[in-house]
Design brief:
By secondary structure, the protein is α/β, with parallel strands linked by helices. It has 7 helices and 5 strands.
Length: 191
């Protein structure tokens, strides 16, 4: 049992370090772009499936409420939380449209979207990104492995260099936390 813990923690640390080295310039660009988005009065939309849906909700909460200190609320919305909308779209149209229809309804040019898919191949996430791009929304793909189709569809892509879903999700939430922290610091400073 102890060996399993030791390996998981060692793998997570190594993969997180590799992720940072491969993505550090993109992470800085994403922070700067998101700060600019918020300062212009635009919003952040977040979406994904399963654990990535939970991460989208978690990160939206960090922006709306607070991360490290009290400050103005930042407009972030997880498109994974309204069960009536999700089931209506899935039932009447297609599960592939659950994010794209919400992006069409709620997204505006100048907004930003975080699309989370550990494989980079989730059809509904890809449809959400396509809808965002049609509306002039800046897209950030959080993915893993080789990035899947998502890596070629987003303005910015953060790829975790492994194929192990739990390790990918750990990097996504770590990256999201650091992005939230840096955005919060920047938003506390007047432009």
């Amino acid at each position: 049992m102890e060996e399993v813990f030791k390996k998981a923690f060692a793998d997570s640390a190594r993969i997180s370090s590799d992720f940072y080295e491969k993505n550090r310039s993109v992470l800085v660009e994403v922070v700067n772009r998101l700060v600019d988005t918020f300062r212009k009065g635009r919003k952040l939309l977040l979406f994904g499936n399963g654990g990535s849906a939970a991460d989208a909700q978690h990160l939206a909460g960090e922006f709306v409420n607070r991360f490290r200190f009290d400050r103005q609320a930042l407009p972030a919305l997880a498109l994974t939380t309204d069960t009536s909308v999700l089931t209506c779209i899935a039932n009447d149209s297609s599960f592939d449209k659950v994010f794209s229809r919400q992006v069409e309804a709620l997204g505006t040019a100048g907004d930003m979207a975080f699309a989370l898919s550990t494989s980079g191949s989730s059809p509904n996430v890809l449809e959400g990104v396509a809808a965002a791009r049609r509306r002039g929304i800046v897209t950030v793909g959080f993915t893993g492995g080789d990035g899947g189709r998502l890596s070629g569809e987003c303005d910015y892509t953060l790829i975790v260099p492994c194929a192990d879903t739990p390790r990918i999700q750990e990097c996504h939430i770590l990256a999201g936390h650091v992005i939230a922290e840096l955005v919060e610091r920047e938003m506390a400073v007047q432009p």
